[in-house]
Amino acid sequence: MSSLPGPESPSERYRASAERAAEAKTYLGGFTRSLAFDLDPFQREACLSLQAGRGVLVAAPTGAGKTIVGEFAIYLALQRGLKAFYTTPIKALSNQKYTELAEKYGAAQVGLLTGDTSINGEAPVVVMTTEVLRNMLYAGSETLDDLGFVVMDEVHYLADRFRGAVWEEVIIHLPSEVQVASLSATVSNAEEFGAWLDTVRGQTDVIVSEHRPVPLWQHVMVGRKIVDLFAGDTSFDEIAPAGEDNVAATADTAGSSAAITERAGYEVNPELLSMARAESQMNFRGRFGHGGRNQRRQQRGQREAAPQGGPRSPVRKASRPQVIASLDRMDLLPAITFIFSRAGCDAAVAQCVSAGLWLTTEKEQLIIAQRVDEAAQDIPSDDLDVLGFWSWRDGLLRGLAAHHAGMLPTFKEVVEKLFVDGLVKAVFATETLALGVNMPARCVVLEKLDKFNGEAHVNITAGEYTQLTGRAGRRGIDVEGHAVVLWQPGTDPAAVAGLASRRTYPLNSSFRPTYNMSINLVAQFGRPRAREILESSFAQFQADRSVVGLAKQVRSREESLAGFSKAMSCHLGDFTEYSRLRRALSDAENAASKGTSRARKSLTEDSLSRLLPGDVVDVPSGRAPGLAVVLSSDHHSREPRPAVMTLDNQLRRIGLHDVEGPLAPITRVRIPKSFNAKVPKSRRDLASSVRNAIRESRPPAPPNRNEDFGRAAALPNMEKKIAELRRELRAHPCHGCSEREDHARWSERWWKLRQETDGLIRQIQGRTNTIAKTFDRVCGVLSGYGYLETSDSGTLSISPDGQRLRRIYGEKDLLISQSLRMGAFSDLDAAEIAALASVLVYQAKREDRGLRPKMPSVSLESAVDTVVREWSALEDVEEANKLPLTGEPELGLVWPIFKWAKGRHLQEVLSGTDLAAGDFVRWVKQVIDLLDQLAKIPGLDPRVARLCGDAITLVKRGVVAYSAVV
Predict the structure, then answer these.
(1) What is the spatial distance between Cα 819 and Cα 834, in angstroms, rounded to a whole number?
(2) Which alpha helices (H) appear in 67-155, and where do they start and end?
(3) 293 alpha-carbon distance from chain centroid
(4) Could you give the 3-state DSSP secondary structure of residue 419?
(5) Cβ–Cβ < 8 Å for 193, 541
(6) 47 by DSSP, 3-state: which?
(7) Phi and psi for 619 in degrees, rounded to 5?
């Protein structure tokens, strides 16, 4: 045990006093005097680095107080007469930070710039989204003059595969004299990221803190009982961080729980392990029929505790109202319950209201009512019903609320403020709340440990778990925070403990050159210097570091290959040659098999592309097998997915995964011109017509060709080649060797290792200058389209069309530019321009993509055809150049935007769509952002530029305009 420190000597006391007096005269001393608390060691260290003129990377847990470092950077800028920019990944966080800083320094000193909001943009302190700063850098904005500090909050967002590259662009392009304060969640490779910052930004200090100022305790809720996850008093700081071996162990749920916990260095609560064993035994007995009559009767009563078809549990899961009531009873409110579904969040509030749950006092209800009514006073009364205002208000009065991207931004802001003030006690939120919005709670609840990522249900990662549970524990309010995982059938306590114990995750770059980025780099620096700049990206930095490890693996494998080669030598002949023949024969046989499969796929795709509206088909499998009528063809897609309607009136698309072979129509019906797939009666009438047609004239089903059509299409001469290889194999001297199979086993190992080694060599080649190679391919596409021009001396210059592209920012930048170039916007009025802009920004969920709607006007139909045609041509070019494909234009927002631009009410606009009001507002703001970009493009047709401004005026009204107010 360590002994207590003895009393300080007079000299030590004098030295400490002198240091305090010296610090009091510094900028840091003035800053600390303005705070109501003392700085933590990591905060002080980071602030001293900034004061000394160095950049900093601060990596610390959520809620540890990283933003204090950013606020000190702002303080330094103001004291030195410089500007400071505070960048965030999302608008909600920008709005929140703007409000905080405006309260502290005064509204005149602080500005806000997001895609759709501009307030006091020339102020000394400006809060902005990272994209706005990137756009400023490329445009050479005068706002950058006298910039001294940039705070990059949530800098770990650069790992985001859609938007992460923007963070790297900003870090690379900021003037060298600007100090950067990067604030990150705890990442496992902070030193690597810091080393890159040091390379591109100059001296950068890395400050990492694992300590949480408010201890975090981990629990599992079993039924209505909260059980500690770890044995003994084990808090967040006391859990040993798991290494790679531990991670692998916790990921392997089939392994022994005891072995996992022993390796990981923590002990899971034996009560939970015992419960997991009991559940496993119950499911084993249930599956194999063990147990007596009483046991089986007991198990029948417990089946309701598990989803149908899933594992059973001896525990009846608590309902959402019961969970909140239990937390209230144990004084663990306010709480955030993370539910990975918007509908689930709304349903949770409704369930708690229906259960009669009240978490507020009468005095709190009066305050809530006053604030809610004030916030809603400017919203048109006609829109309140469609926005779900009254049910939302009722939930808030009870202390309950949802928080997700489908809500109106104004509603979300009200929820955030009421929650921070302790008036709302239970919030049901999607994971977007964990991205940085400051809403700490006493307790965080996770309903499940898996989520739908847009393609499949996947387990959440350790990093996501840390980010979500990090919201628990309010500094200065709570003595401790609590994270609660709800017990589900099949829960493995050791796996939960593995998530809870691994607090860090690696930060990996998602950087890649885009069309806009590349043309801006060429314009500013020329192509050679642009390549050098891109090679300084974090993505290339990581790739170069990984090559060292790969080269070491190659050397080790080459040594093993030499040993294998010696072991497979044969006294009768060259076994390497014999092995090559065996491999060639195996490859030929596999190729023949694949040829058959390819032919099957090709014929199936062809049959799907040939289907016409009115064809009746029998879909053999997929989500809705059975008879269906084709509503629209799909001739042009790479993988045809014609739209159909099933006989139970479901609208869907069928693709290769729904059929086993070519699909032929069994009969045809006429689809009336008045048919509208959105009208239930139209669907019922068409289904009735299909049934009548089948009864009256259904021909006999065609013979099944799945057995032999592929065989007929097999590659020519393949059978001949296989027979020839077999003859050569039998004639080889080594074929008669008595140890042939032993040699063959060594040969197989040699071939397998050779393939692995060659793969590593290809990886090394691929990672060398990989970013610059991609840049070269992007420049090739831009040159092909005429955006870049090569002079007689061989230097690249930007064409007039290329100058336009420099000012277009977005995932479809080149498609937008091509649409402008081809005159898609030329013959449209303001409302039609707004609708066309939606085609270039909207991204529908895959399941929401339906039939192509009829456009509101002939001119808009023509414009959309131009956009789709340009996209199709661009996709072919990108595929040929091995570049990421530009997303397909989406038409699902055309009618809502068009109606909104024509002045229709919100209810009429959203009628017949699956859009939530919040989603609609969010997409309209993105349309406004694009229209604003287009209106400011130099050299654009003045009429189009004017109409883009008019379109903004048309759509920026009602709830959209109100939601832009901070």
Answers:
(1) 14
(2) 67-79, 91-105, 130-139
(3) 50
(4) helix
(5) no
(6) helix
(7) -80, 120
Averaged pLDDT for residues 441-469? 79
3-state secondary structure 800-829: HHHHHHCCCCCCCHHHHHHHHHCCCCCCCC
Neighbours of 956 (CB within 10 A): 16
In the chain the first and final C-alpha atoms are separated, in Å, by 55
Q: What is the pLDDT of residues 28-46, one digit of tens each?
A: 888 888 888 888 889 999 9
User: For residues 830 and 927, what is the distance between their CA atoms, to the nearest angstrom?
Assistant: 13
Q: Can you tell me the mean pLDDT for 947-953? A: 94
| Structure tokens, 941 | 């047709």
Q: At what angle do helices 575-610 and 718-731 cross, to 10 degrees?
A: 170
How far CA 170 is from CA of 32, 132, 478, in Å, comes to: 30, 10, 37
Phi-psi region of 614 (alpha: psi -120 to 50; beta: other; left: phi over 0): left
Interior/surface letters 205-236, b for 16+ CB within 10 angstroms, e for the rest: bbbbbeebbbbbbbbbbbbeebbbbbeeebeb
Residues in CB range of 188: below 8 A, 6 or more apart? 504, 505, 506, 507
Residue 318 has pLDDT above 70, yes or no: yes
Q: Which tokens is 371 given?
A: 């604030």
Nearest to 500 by CA among 265, 166, 793, 814: 265
Which residues make Cβ contacts (< 8 Å) with residue 159, sequence separation at least 6?
507, 508, 509, 510
**CB of 931 closer than 8 Å to CB of 951:** yes
Whole-angstrom distance, CA of residue 640 vs CA of residue 611 = 10
How many other C-beta atoms lie within 10 A of the C-beta of residue 377?
Answer: 8
In Å, what is the CA distance from 222 to each residue of 84, 285, 489?
49, 22, 10
- Residue 240: per-residue pLDDT: 46
pTM listed for this prediction: 0.70
CA distance linking residue 147 with residue 855, whole number of Å: 47
Q: Report the distance separating Cα 585 and Cα 576, nearest Å.
A: 14
Six token digits for residue 614 = 């009115």
What gap in Å lies between CA 590 and CA 888, rounded to an integer?
Answer: 35
Sign, Cα dihedral of 808, 813, 814, 817: negative
- For residue 238, the model assigns a pLDDT of 54
Residue-wise pLDDT tens digits, 671-705: 888 888 878 888 888 888 888 888 776 544 444 43
Q: Look at 939 and 845; give whichever has higher pLDDT.
A: 939
Confidence of residue 503 (pLDDT cuts 50, 70, 90): low
Cα torsion through 191, 195, 200, 202, rounded to 10: 100
Q: Quick one: which of 574, 581, 586 has its CA closest to 729?
A: 581
Query: DSSP strand E in 878-922: where?
Result: none
Runs of H (alpha helix) within 140-225? 165-173, 190-201
Cα–Cα dist 761/764, whole Å: 5
Q: β-strand 335-338 against 443-446: which pairing, if any?
A: parallel
**How far apart, in whole angstroms, are the C-alpha atoms of residue 367 and residue 364?**
5
Q: How many Å apart are CA 685 and CA 682, to the nearest integer?
A: 5
Cβ contacts of 105 within 8 Å, gap of 6 or more: 74, 78, 125
Strand 651-653, strand 643-646: pairing = antiparallel
What are 837's two structure tokens? 């802009």
The answer on pLDDT for 435 being more than 70 is: no
Please say whether the beta carbons of 658 and 620 come within 8 A: yes
Place of tokens 């500690």: 228
> CB neighbours of 140 closer than 8 A, spacing ≥ 6?
none
Only one residue has tokens 């017990």, namely 487
